[in-house]
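Fold it.
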Amino acid sequence: NKNYFSFGFNLSDNAGNTNSPVWHYLYLDRSAPEVQLTNPIDGITISTISYNYGFNVSDNSFGIDGHFTPEVNCTIYIDGQIKNQHISTNNETVSLTASLTGLDDGSYNWQVVCVDSAGWSTQSLTRTFILDTTGPTITLTSPENNSVINNSQIISLNVNDALSQVNKVWYQDALGNTLTTTNVGPNQYTINPSSW
């Protein structure tokens, strides 16, 4: 299939006037651009109000020759809302910042749609992310706050995070020692003060 066409025109009228040759060039683009998401990974948890989204974009019309200036316009969508755009004039890796301001904490879908100069459109795969800007909570469940206890009384706490797992709990004991526990599961967390 031939994709590159050039047309040379010579014109004359009935009075015998002629023009200088005029050349026109066309490139027949037969396929859509390609787009592949690079980052962030699917299912990531994000805690900031802006984030960088990356993708690779390519199009068969790039680099034909100097007669053509093809472009591919790529748009980042988060849950169907436009968050940023970029115009590519060659095959490239793109990193764009998208503002998450105004989004509530929760799960979201994101994708990139690229449209080339010929009007061909490509939609990337859809990835998800979790926006979590609220820290975990801790609640003393037993004994009651301001209780007087002996050193054999187990202290029970409820640790929770609405969207992502609590990964670390640390506290200071009565002697000023900082104690840390990592990879904490949801719900109950206990402290044994017998070593205090």
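The longest strand covers residues 106-116.
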